[in-house]
Amino acid sequence: MNFDFSDDQKLIQKTARDYLAQHAPLSVCRRVLEGNERYDAALWKGAAEMGWLGAAVPEEYGGSGLGHLELVLIAEEIGRSLAPIPFSSSAALATEALLVAGSEAQKKKLLPRLCSGELIGTLAVAEGTGDFDVATPGTRIEGGRVTGEKLPVSDGDVAGIALVLVRDGSGASLALVDLEAPGVTRTSLESLDPSRSQAKLGFSNVPAEIVGASGKGREIVSKVLDRAAVVMAFEQLGGAQRALDVTRDYALGRYAFGRPIASFQALKHRFADLFCAIELARSNAFYGAWALSHGNDELPLAACGARIAATDAFELAAKDMIQIHGGVGYTWEYDCHLFYRRAKLLGLVLGSASEWREKLMTRLEAREAA
Amino acid sequence: MNFDFSDDQKLIQKTARDYLAQHAPLSVCRRVLEGNERYDAALWKGAAEMGWLGAAVPEEYGGSGLGHLELVLIAEEIGRSLAPIPFSSSAALATEALLVAGSEAQKKKLLPRLCSGELIGTLAVAEGTGDFDVATPGTRIEGGRVTGEKLPVSDGDVAGIALVLVRDGSGASLALVDLEAPGVTRTSLESLDPSRSQAKLGFSNVPAEIVGASGKGREIVSKVLDRAAVVMAFEQLGGAQRALDVTRDYALGRYAFGRPIASFQALKHRFADLFCAIELARSNAFYGAWALSHGNDELPLAACGARIAATDAFELAAKDMIQIHGGVGYTWEYDCHLFYRRAKLLGLVLGSASEWREKLMTRLEAREAA
Amino acid sequence: MDFNDTAEEAAYRAKARAWLDANAEPVDPNEPSGDPLAEREDDDMIRSAKAWQAKKFDAGWACITWPKEYGGQGGTTMQSVIFNQEQSKFKTPPPIYTIGHGMLGPTIMTHGTPEQKTKHLRTMARGEEIWCQLFSEPAAGSDLAGLRSTAVRDGNDWVLNGQKIWSTGAHFSKWGMIVVRTDPNAAKHAGLTYFILDMESKGIEIRPIKQINGGSGFNEVFYADVRVPDSNRVGAVGDGWRVALTTLMNERVAIGAGSATGGFRHLLKLARDAKRGGRPAIEDSAVRQKLAELWVTQQGLKYTGFRTLSALSQGKIPGPEGSIGKAVGAPMAQEMAALAVELQGPLGATRDAAATLHEGLWQGMWLATPGIRIAGGTDEILKNIIAERVLRLPPEVRLDKDMPFRDVPTGPPSK
Amino acid sequence: MDFNDTAEEAAYRAKARAWLDANAEPVDPNEPSGDPLAEREDDDMIRSAKAWQAKKFDAGWACITWPKEYGGQGGTTMQSVIFNQEQSKFKTPPPIYTIGHGMLGPTIMTHGTPEQKTKHLRTMARGEEIWCQLFSEPAAGSDLAGLRSTAVRDGNDWVLNGQKIWSTGAHFSKWGMIVVRTDPNAAKHAGLTYFILDMESKGIEIRPIKQINGGSGFNEVFYADVRVPDSNRVGAVGDGWRVALTTLMNERVAIGAGSATGGFRHLLKLARDAKRGGRPAIEDSAVRQKLAELWVTQQGLKYTGFRTLSALSQGKIPGPEGSIGKAVGAPMAQEMAALAVELQGPLGATRDAAATLHEGLWQGMWLATPGIRIAGGTDEILKNIIAERVLRLPPEVRLDKDMPFRDVPTGPPSK
Question: Nearest-CA residue of chain C relative to D289?
Fold first, then answer.
C-alpha cells in the first residue's frame, strides 16, 4: 500500500510552494481584494509558465502531461497562498470539461491556449440563487445559438470562453461560447471574496458549439464537477492548513494573564478539533485524488467526501481564526477575513456542502441498491 | 409583567421537593430499575395523597383544583427525583385527555379515580417504530369494539385504562378502553429506562367508548400532547438541573493533577454551555406553562418550544454527566446512567425532538400564512 | 404568571406612548432591519441624536433611573425598560449615549467627586456632550487589567502616554473615561488609576479601525504627553481597577438588556424564497429542522429576557440567567447568517444587491457577526464568567496576579 | 499513490491467507457485529483463545513484530497489519492477548532483566499465560501518576497494598504488570516503581465492575499485604513512571491501529427500515444530511488509517494524523447510536428485541458508547495529547509536579 504522494510529486508541490511564497504573499491577495483588478495577471502568467494550468493535460494539447496527482498538489499550494487567480475556473472546470467531453478539434484548439494562460475558461451552470446544478436550464440553445442568463459564473468577467449548460430540445447540452462574441453581456457581481471574481453572463442569440454528446450536458457537468471538486478540495485544504498554522503562531505569541493564549485549555481543545477536521479532510481528499487519478468508479463518492470534508474544515478554520485572534481578527488590517471570505467562496462556488451531501446520499443509495 | 411563579406556587414546589427528597432518593429509582416492580407503589400512593395527580383537576372531579402552573412545578420535582411512578402517563396524558375531551359522565366517573391514584391511565397512539403521532392508525373501532395493536405504550402494563387512537370509519377517534377487559393483552417491553415501564397492548374485539367528538381523534391527541409536552418539559428540566448539580459537585470534589477537575477550562466551558441550554429550556418551559395555564392560542407553538428545548437540555446534561464523571460515570454503581436512561426515555415517549421540530415548523408556517 | 403590566406599569407605558406618538414617527414592522454593527456616524446623525436626547430630557424621559439631582427621573429600571420598549417602535437616531448613560454616568455617581458630578452628569443626561470609554489596549483585550498605557504625576497634572483601542464613538465624543497604569511596580490590578479625559486635549490622535465588513464603529486612540488635571481623577490613585469594575458591571447590564431576537422572521421568509433541489428551501426537512432549532433558541433568549424583566418589575435582583444572552445570542447570529448565505447556493458568495435574496443583507450579517462574538467580551470570556460567577467553579490558575506588573510575561521568551 | 500491496506484501498476504483458509472459518460479511464492549468472558472462550494462539505460534504467526529470540517472527509492522487484516475475515476467539502482546511484552523487552525476558516472553507469545495491566486507580484515572497504591521493601520482597481499577481481564490473567508508589516523599512522578505480579499471590481480590450496559469487561483489584519478590521489579526503584510510559506509548499504537469504521452500512439499512412522517426515514432530507456527515467522517477515519499504514508500509514513522482515531471515532460512535435510537421514535426507548429495529442492537450501542469515550483516555485527554504532542501547544499549568507527592491536594480543603 502506498496511499501517499511520490517524492517527485512532493517536489513539484515544494516548488509551487516556494514560488508562491515569493510571488503570492497574502499582500497580493489583499491588493486584488481591495483594488480594481479582477485577478493578478502577473501571477497568472507565472502559474502558466510553471506549467500548473496544464499539469493534468497531455503534452499533445500543450499541457505538462504530469497528471491529476500533481494538479491537486499545486491546487493545495494555491489554496495555501490564497492566490488571486482564476485557477479553479480555468484549470479545473473548463480544462476538465474539455478533457472529459471535448472533441479532438476542440481540445486541439483550446487546451493549448488554456494551458498557456492566454485564454481563461469557466463553466456556467447556475441560474440564480439555489443549487449549483440546475435540473432544467432556462438558458436555451436553438439553431446553434444560445440565449439566456447565467449567474453566478466564477471568473465569468475575465474568462474568454465558457462552457454553458443549456436546454437543448428536451434535454440539456454543454455549449462552448466565446465570451467576446456579440450578444454576450458580462456583469461583474460584487464577490464576497473580491480576490475571486464572480459575474453574471447574458446571452442573446450567441453562436455556440456543443461539447460532448448532445443531450448529455448534465452527465458531463456531473463528471466535471466531481473532478473539479477534488481539485478544489486540495485548494480548500491548503487554505485551512494555513489558517491553522497562522492562528497557532498567533496564539503562541499572544499573551494574556501572563501566559500565551495557546495555553488555555478551551483554545487547545479547539485547536485539536480543528486539527482533526483538517486531517479527516486531508484523508478524504487523498482518496478523491486517488480515484481521480485512477479514473475509476470510486470517483463519484470520493469526490463528494472530498468536497464536503474540505468545505467544512476550511470554514471551521476560518471562523476559528477570527475568534482566536480576537479583536484584531475582526479588523480589515489583519488577514483573517481573507481566509473567512475565501473559505465561504470556495465552499459555495461548486454548490454548497448541503447540495453535495444530498448528492452523496443519492449515489450511496444507488450503489447499495446495485 | 410577572413571568414567574407565585410564592404560593413555589411553596407547593418546595413541599413536593421535600417530600420527594425523603421518599424518593435515587435509591428508589434504582430499586425499580434493577428489580421486578414496574413502579413504586408506595410512592404512587404518596403522590396521590399529596394531591399531585389531580393538581390541575377541578375539585368537582376529585382534583385539588389548583391549576397547571402547580402541576408543572410538581412535574419538575418528579423529574428532579427520577421518581419511578407513572406520573406523566396518568396525570398528564390520560387526565388531560379526559379534561380536554371527556364527557361529563366520563370525567365524573374516571377523574376521581385517576386523582386518587387508584386507577392508572395512559394514552396509546404509536404503532411500532417511527413517529409517535400516526397519521392513520391500524387499530380500528367497529361497532364499539377495538381491534389492533399499540406499541409502545408508556406504563401500558400497569394502567387500568387507556385512551386509544383508533381508526373510525374514514377518520380517527379516541377510544376509552378498560385494560382489564377480556380481549386485551398486555406485554411489558424491556424499557431503556426500566424505572419507567413500556408495553405493547393488543386488542381483540374489546368494548370501548368514544371520548370527544367522533372522527376528531387526531385533533384531540394533538391538544393532549401539547399539554403533556409542557408538563413533561418541566419533568425533563428537573432531571437536567439535578444532573448539572450532581456533576458540578462531583467535579468540585474530584481532584486530578492536584486541582479540582472543575477548574479545567474545557470542563468549565462545558458546564457553561450546559447552564445555557438548561436556562433556555427553562425559559421555553415557562412560556409553555403560561400558555397552558391561560389556555390560549400560543400553546401549540409554546409546547413545541418547551418540548424541544427540554429534550435537548436533558439529553445533553445526562451525556455530559457520564463524560465528566469519567470512568465511574460508566459504572452501574454510580447514578449517571439513571439520568442517561431517563433523559432518553422522556425525550422519546411523546415523540422525538425531530418529530416536534417538524410539527413546530408546520405550525409556524400556518401562523405566518394566517 | 402573566405578561401584563401592573396597573402602574400600564399607566407609565400609556404616558410614554402618548409622548412618543406626539413626538416621533412609528417604525414599519415589515421593513428589514439594517446591519447589526452601525457604520461610522456622520455629523447629521450626531445633530439629530443630540436634538432627540435634549427633547427627551426636557420632557422628563432621559436617564429615567438616574436620581433627579443628576438630571434623571428617579425612576425604576422597569420604567426605563418600558420607555425603551415603546421607543423601539419609533424611528429614532442611533443610540450614541448608551455607554455614557449606562456605564460612565453610574461610575461618576459612585466614585466621582461632588465637583465632577455637578459638572458632568446633567450635561451628559441631556446629551449635550457625548462620552466614550477608553479601556482596551492592543495588548489588553480579554485581559483588560494587563493594560500598559501610563500616567505620570507632574505637579497638578498627570501626563498620559500610550494607546487605547476599540473605543466606540471616540471620534465624536467630548469626554472619555480612561484607565491607565500609574505604578508598574505594583501588582497588575493594584497599579491602575481612572481619569476623566477631555478628548479635545492636545496630544490625542484618533484613528478609525476598519472592520472586516467595511464599517468603522471603533477607533484606535493614541496619547502622546496628554495632560490631565488631577481634579479629573475618579477614585484614589491605584484604585482604578475597582472603579473600572463599576463601569464593567454596568456594561453587563446594558448589554444584557438588549438581546436582539429579531431576524428570525426574515430568515423564514428567505427560506421560502430560496430554492433547494428546485423546491422552496422551506420544504426541505434539513432546513426545517435547523430553522426549528434556531426558533427555539431565539424564543429561549426572548423569554429569558422576560424572566429578567419580571424580577426587575417586582423589585428583585435578576437571576443568573441574564448572563447567557450574549454567550448564546452571538454565535446564534453568526449561525443564522451562515445558514441564510448557504441557502442561496453559489450566489450566496456574492453581495450583489440585485442578484442575492434580501439585497445582500445576510452577506453583510455574515461579515458582521464574527465581531459580535468578540466585542464586549468574547464567547470564551463569557463562558468563563458563567462558569466562575454563576456556577462558582474555580477560577483559572493565575500566575500573574501577585507579581509586579513589570515582571508579568507579555510574550514568548526571547531565544 | 495506490492501494495495492508491494510484491513482498502481496506474497506475505497470500501466505497468511492460505494458512488461515486451512485453519479457520471465514466470517459472513452480512452478519451484524455485536456489542463493541465485550461481555465477561467464560472458560470456554479462554480455552479456545489459548488454543488459537498456540496454533498461530506453532505455525509462526504469533507476535509477528517481536524478535525471534523472544518467540516472535522478527517481522515488520506492516506484516503484522497484513496478518491481522486477513485474520479479521475469519471467525476467531476474542482478542485477550492484546494488552500482553501489544504493551506488556514490549515493556519487558525494553526494561526487563534477562531472567524476566527468558521466563516470560515466550510463554506470553504462545499465549500459555494471560497478562493484564494494573495502572489505574479510583483516584488516578486521567491523572495516572497520581496513583496511591504502595509497596514497601521487606527483605527480598516488596509488600503491596492498595487498589487498582479498570483492569481488563484481571480475572483470567496469570500475570499482571503493576505500578505502585514506593516513595511518597518524592515528587509525584519520581516515587513510582514497576513490578511483575503473580495474580495468584495471596492477598489479591478481584471484583468485576458492572457497566451501565450490564457488561463487566473490567475489574477492581484489591491488594492486602501482597508479597512480590524484588526479582519481579522492572526497572530501577523510583523509575516506574518511565517504564510505565513505555507501556502507554505502546497502548497508543495498539488502540490507534484498531479504529473501527464498521456500522455505517447497518445505520443506512436502519434508515431505510425506519419511518419518519410515514415515509422511509432515508427519504427525509435531515436524516440524509446527517448520514452524509457521518459517512464522510467515517471515510476520513478509514483513509487516515490508510495513511498510517502507508507510512508503515514504506518503513516510515507514521505522521500525527494517527492520533485522531479515538478522539473522533468515539464521539461519532455515540452519535451514530443516538441517531439510530431516535430514528425508531418512541419505540427507540425500548430494548425489545422483537419490537425494535435490528433487535435492540442500537440501544445496546447507545449504552456502550459512553464507555468508549472514557476508556483508554477520555476525549479530553486525547485532545490534550493532540494539542500538546502534535500541535506543540503549551502544557497545562501544573502545580503538583514538583511538590512531594504526599502534599499534593487530593480533595477540597476541609472546612
Answer: C286
CB distance A157 to A186 below 8 Å: yes
Q: How far is CA A287 from the centre of its chain?
A: 17
Q: Do D374 and B336 touch (CB under 8 A)?
A: no
- For a pLDDT cut of 70, what percent of chain C falls above it? 94
pLDDT surpassing 70 at residue B184: yes
Do the beta carbons of residue A86 and residue A120 sit within 8 Å? Answer: yes
Per-position b or e across B188-213, b if 16+ CB within 10 A of its CB: bbebbbbbbbbbbbbbeebbbebbbe
Is residue A314 classed as helix, strand or coil in its secondary structure?
helix
Question: Does residue C414 lie in a domain region?
Answer: no
Domain that holds residue D295: 256-390
Residues of D in contact with A305 (CB under 8 A): 295-296, 299-300
Cα(A267)–Cα(D50) distance, integer angstroms: 47
Question: Which residues does A335 contact at the CB level (< 8 Å), separation at least 6?
Answer: A26, A30, A246
Inter-chain residue contact D348 with B151, CB threshold 8 Å: no
Q: How distant is the Cα of B20 from the closest Cα of chain D, in angstroms?
A: 25
ipTM score of complex: 0.95
C-alpha cell at B119: 386507577
Tell whether D334 is covered by a domain: yes
pLDDT at residue D33, as a whole number: 55
Interface of A with B (CB under 8 A): 264-266, 268-269
| Contacts with A280 from chain D: Cβ below 8 Å | 296-297, 300-301, 304, 324, 328
Closest partner residue to B357 among C9, C292, C387, by Cβ? C292
Alpha-helix residue ranges (DSSP H) falling in D203-284: 240-257, 264-273
Residue D279 phi, psi dihedral angles, 5° rounding: -110, 160
Contacts of D141 in chain B (CB under 8 A): 256, 326-327
At residue D262, the pLDDT reads 58
C-alpha cell at A37: 483588478
Query: What is the rounded distance in angstroms from the CA atom of residue A139 to the CA atom of residue A162?
Result: 13
The C-alpha cell that represents B284 in the structure block? 421555553
Beta bridge partners, D159, equal D152, D227
Instruction: Count residue pairs from A and C with Cβ separation < 8 A.
Output: 170
Q: Which residue type does A250 have?
A: Y
Q: Tell me the chain D residues in contact with residue A290 when contact means C-beta distances shorter than 8 Å.
A: 1-3
Measure the CA dihedral B24/B25/B26/B31, to 10°.
Answer: -60
Q: Is the pLDDT of residue A338 over 90?
A: yes
Q: Is CATH 3.90.420.10 the right assignment for the domain spanning A218-369?
A: no
On whether the CB atoms of residues A233 and A281 are closer than 8 A, the answer is yes
The fourth-level CATH superfamily of domain B7-119 is: Acyl-CoA dehydrogenase/oxidase, N-terminal domain (1.10.540.10)
Q: Which of C286, C363, C408 sits opposite A192 (nearest CB)?
A: C363
Question: Class of B122-213 per CATH?
Answer: mainly beta
Query: Is the confidence at residue D37, as pLDDT, over 60?
Result: no
Report the relative pairing of strands B145-154 and B198-211 from DSSP bridges: antiparallel
Give yes or no: D396 in active site.
no
Q: Give me the residue spans of the domains in chain A.
A: 7-119, 122-213, 218-369
Measured at the alpha carbon of residue B213, what is the angle toward residues B211 and B214, in degrees to the nearest 5? 90
pLDDT tens across D267-296, in order?
999 999 999 988 999 999 999 999 999 999
HSE-CB at B365 with a 13 A cutoff on CA atoms is: 16
> How many domains does one find in chain C?
3
Tell me, what's the pLDDT at C253? 53
D297: cell is 467522517
Q: Which of residues 322-361 of B touch D (CB under 8 A)?
A: 322-323, 326-333, 336-337, 340, 344-345, 347-355, 358
Give the 3-state DSSP-derived string for B72-141, with helices as H, strands as E and coil as C: HHHHHHHHHHCCCCCHHHHHHHHHHHHHHHCCHHHHHHHHHHHHCCCCCEEEECCECCCCCCCCCCCCEE
